[in-house]
Amino acid sequence: MGSIRKYAAVNTKIKYLSSKLLKKEDYKKLLEITSYDDAFNYLKNTTDYGDLIEKDEILEIEELERLFNRHLYQSLEKINHYFVNEDREFIKALFVRYEVENIKLLLRLISRNEELKDFKNKIYIPKIKTNVDYELLESSSTLEEAILNLANTPYKRVLEQYIGDHSSRQMFYIEMTLDRHYFNNLMRVTQKLDKEDKKLVNELLGRNIDLLNIQWIYRGSKYYGLSPEELINYTLNGGFLLKYEFLKDLCYTSSFESFREKINKSGYSKDLVNSFGESDEHIESEIEKYLFNLFLKFKKNSYMNMVEFLVYIHSLEFEMRDLFIILESKRYGISEDVAKTFLVRPV
Fold it and tell me: Which PANTHER family does UniProt cross-reference here (predicted)?
């Protein structure tokens, strides 16, 4: 009875929001459309995304992406007030990811000597209580200065070790450290959930961590030439199937074929294993396809728990990702068949 009282209102809200997600027919129609302008007009005139588009003219894809991302974050924050106590603390810890992504984006721009003007106006700042001063960050001219401008936040503490590091791997280290900080905090908060939610979230989160560890070991070895010791030091804790000894063995694997063979024995799908050796985009899409199907499986077998919320969050995020892959395919003349291979949702 407790879980019914706890989740009845939030699940009603989520069902309403879920009804606004794109249907399979929308995906098919968008893929069939041949021009960006026609795809934009379909979204505006035929789907619920039209409620967000106030201008009459065709928007550039970058502006449309900012508009829809803002909608994503605001949708999640509308659900937040339905939760209390440890559940709200968990939701807040989830929202930290958007702040981490903002910081990573800003640091990447600085590392490439790109313009930071109006950075704060181009991102969405989640309504979580932190001490990140975005205006101060925007004034930074070097990575070292940006890290110092994160004073009074947990990010300065975990990143200050990279001050003075001018290697080509600096941003890779920084991004992995920020992700590790985020997941460590999320795992800590997850342990405070009630017994049923904790069990479900631990598996969902643990499997996500497994796949991220595989991807990061692959990238760290292929693109940055990291030593096995460095690779294992940057793996995330809390994996579901892949424990420390397996990850360590993977880090010390000397050949690509052996790497794939080990993943093949890990308990994850053959399609995921086969994606390694293709483009990074295919690896990412296969990981997200796996997670999408995993969330749907959990939803089917769950009732009145945190899963409904997590499924909605990820369904919306995956839809946004798919939507902009489709729009980019129109802008660059990429065929429907090729675009489909990068989509998370099957069509």
Answer: V-TYPE ATP SYNTHASE SUBUNIT C
